[in-house]
Amino acid sequence: MLNDLYQDAWKELNFASSNKEHPFNYFTLATTGKNESIRQRTVILRGVTENKSLLFYTDLRSTKIKQIQTNPKVSGLFYNPKAQLQLIIKGTILIHTHNEEWEEHKEKIDGKAVNNYNTLFPPGKPIKNPLKVERTKKLNFALLEFIPARIEYLKIKEDSNHLRARFRLEDGIWKETFLVP
Ligand SMILES: Cc1cc2nc3c(=O)[nH]c(=O)nc-3n(C[C@H](O)[C@H](O)[C@H](O)COP(=O)(O)O)c2cc1C
Questions:
Q1: Which of 106, 86, 109 is closest to 98 using CA atoms?
Q2: Which domains are delineated in the chain?
Q3: What is the H or E stretch that residue 151 is in?
Q4: Is 26's C-beta closer than 6 angstroms to any atom of ligand 1?
């Protein structure tokens, strides 16, 4: 049964990565900043690799990149309100730029999506007029690979028999246990 929950989690994540309507298509990513401060933000799940890494995109100049460069340990929160399913995934992030994977994903960015990576000034810089953001031809695109090391699964049940389980990667093997919900 534990293995079913593990498979269920990955099935949902896989499906969500190519289905905008699925609530797991968006997740909350938490990183740590200066003085152990926590910063959270919404990002879009763009893919799940064969090795079970979660892929998402960002602007190379964003705050999250600086924070990940200092401390690559992150936490991702996924919530599906319909299924009452929450996944908390902890792991590390690899930043890809100018490699094969990066090229492959960069090619998919077209139309309005280029505007997520082409501002003249870095994201987060104060500006006077939000309708006049200056843009360039340069795409400051980064592919981020979130490598999970720990997954906490919580399914809320109508009958109060909630299901909580933890999956932890130890020496390449996912160790699993139920937890008191
Ligand atoms: C619906 C939605 C989807 C978003 N998707 C992404 C995304 O995929 N990648 C990203 O870097 N920022 C995304 N953002 C913006 C982030 O939430 C955040 O504001 C931005 O990345 C700056 O974060 P940072 O300053 O912590 O780096 C999204 C925001 C919303 C509301």
A1: 106
A2: 2-111+141-178 (2.30.110.10)
A3: strand 141-155
A4: yes
Q: Is 105 in the pocket of ligand 1 (CB under 6 A)?
A: no
pLDDT by residue for the chain (181 residues), tens digit each? Answer: 899 999 999 999 999 999 999 999 999 999 999 998 999 999 999 999 999 999 999 999 999 999 999 999 999 999 999 999 999 999 999 999 999 999 999 999 989 999 999 999 999 999 999 999 999 999 999 999 999 999 999 999 999 999 999 999 999 999 999 999 9
Ligand 1 center to 41 CA (angstroms): 6
Report whether residue 32 contacts ligand 1, using a CB cutoff of 6 Å. no
Alpha-carbon distance values, 77 to 46, 72, 90, 152, 154 (Å): 15, 16, 9, 10, 11
